[in-house]
């Protein structure tokens, strides 16, 4: 399969450092959209469709038909625009079947006893190894738990979309202390990805720190094995788990953590409106352990 058949266009969302993708078979004019983003102003609790509007406009200009809106996991740092894409362009919203366990954990956190923790908020739940097509290009979904319990990677041709399981080599890997996360599972998932051919193109879901360079979102298995700052070819599981656990212990939760999880666990939908027609997020107080942002009181004389 030639590289020209599978076209990949990335859309970088600066506030969350997220990369959304339009992946297409340009010959068949069929496409998948991966991890689309809504803008969210936490101070005013306001959403904006600017980032996803750019994706929708691109798809229309290219005259593509969207068959899939793929979520690599339940994102904890931005609100999903999957439903905006579906409303504008059609397609099925799909996520890994592991989402059900994450939903159950979040339903307990947010005290939502009536929330359906069965993945019914999505159009399709992918089991590990499930096959699907992007146009005439065969693709497959693989469970990659570790960053969270619902993580999946999507392999199409010589290209893999890894979500937050791997970042660019100079950023290493994402945290493993989110709902359903586990550092040992993350290591094993990365090792599974490393089993792909060295020339396989790798597209991560974020580029959080790119000091000294422009944002980037394409690498290869060979480059990850050689240069990934957390998991090079010779890093052992125990060493990675110790490092990842120690690092995660010092991290604050993402700025939009509670809002993003509530929105995304519902398949990219706001909580049901209250009697006044307004939707409200629930913010649990002191319900989580972890690092708080440092604050120092300065005396002024």
How would you characterize the overall build of this protein?
The chain has helices at about 50-60, 80-90, 100-110, 185-195, 220-225, 235-250, 255-265; strands at about 5-15, 20-25, 30-35, 35-40, 45-50, 65-70, 80, 90-95, 125, 130-135, 135-145, 150-155, 160-165, 200-205, 220. The protein has about 300 residues and is α/β, with parallel strands linked by helices. The protein has one domain (about 5-265): Ribonuclease Z/Hydroxyacylglutathione hydrolase-like (Metallo-beta-lactamase, Chain A, 4-Layer Sandwich), CATH 3.60.15. β2 and β3 form a beta hairpin. It is globular and about 55 Å long. The mean pLDDT is about 95.
Q: Can you tag this structure with a few keywords?
A:
301 residues, alpha/beta, six-stranded mixed β-sheet, 15 strands
Outline:
Helices cover 24% and strands 24% of the residues.
Task: Give the arrangement of secondary structure elements.
Blueprint: E1 6-13, E2 18-25, E3 30-34, E4 37-41, E5 46-48, H1 50-61, E6 65-70, E7 79-80, H2 82-89, E8 92-96, H3 99-109, E9 124-126, E10 130-134, E11 137-143, E12 152-156, E13 159-163, H4 183-194, E14 201-204, E15 219-220, H5 221-227, H6 237-249, H7 257-265
Parallel strand pairs: 3-6, 6-8, 8-9, 13-14
Antiparallel strand pairs: 1-2, 2-3, 4-5, 4-7, 10-11, 11-12, 12-13, 14-15
Helix pairs in contact: 1-2, 4-6
């Amino acid at each position: 399969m030639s590289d020209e058949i599978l076209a990949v266009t990335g859309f970088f969302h600066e506030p969350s450092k997220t990369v959304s993708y339009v992946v297409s078979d340009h010959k068949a004019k069929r496409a998948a959209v991966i991890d689309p983003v809504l803008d969210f102003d936490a101070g005013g609790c306001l959403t904006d469709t600017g980032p996803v509007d750019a994706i929708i406009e691109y798809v229309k200009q290219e005259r593509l038909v969207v068959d899939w809106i793929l979520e690599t996991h339940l994102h904890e740092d931005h609100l999903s625009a999957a439903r905006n894409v579906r409303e504008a362009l059609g397609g099925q919203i799909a996520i890994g079947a592991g989402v059900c366990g994450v939903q159950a954990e979040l339903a307990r956190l947010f005290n939502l006893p009536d929330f359906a923790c069965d993945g019914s908020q999505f159009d399709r739940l992918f089991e590990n190894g499930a096959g699907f097509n992007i146009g005439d290009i065969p693709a497959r979904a693989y469970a990659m738990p570790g960053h969270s319990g619902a993580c999946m990677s999507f392999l199409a041709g010589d290209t893999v979309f890894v979500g937050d399981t791997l970042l660019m080599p100079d950023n290493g890997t994402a945290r493993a202390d989110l709902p359903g996360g586990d550092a040992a599972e993350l290591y094993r998932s990365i090792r599974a990805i490393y089993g792909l051919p060295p020339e396989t193109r790798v597209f991560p879901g974020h580029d959080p720190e790119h000091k000294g360079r422009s944002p980037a979102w394409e690498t290869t298995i060979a480059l990850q094995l050689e240069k990934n700052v957390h998991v090079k070819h010779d890093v052992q599981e125990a060493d990675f788990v110790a490092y990842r656990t120690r690092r995660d212990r010092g991290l604050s939760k993402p700025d939009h953590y509670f809002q993003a999880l509530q929105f995304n666990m519902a398949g990219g939908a706001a909580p049901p409106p209250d009697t006044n027609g307004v939707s409200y997020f629930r913010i649990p107080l002191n319900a989580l352990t972890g690092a708080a942002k440092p604050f120092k009181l300065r005396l002024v004389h």
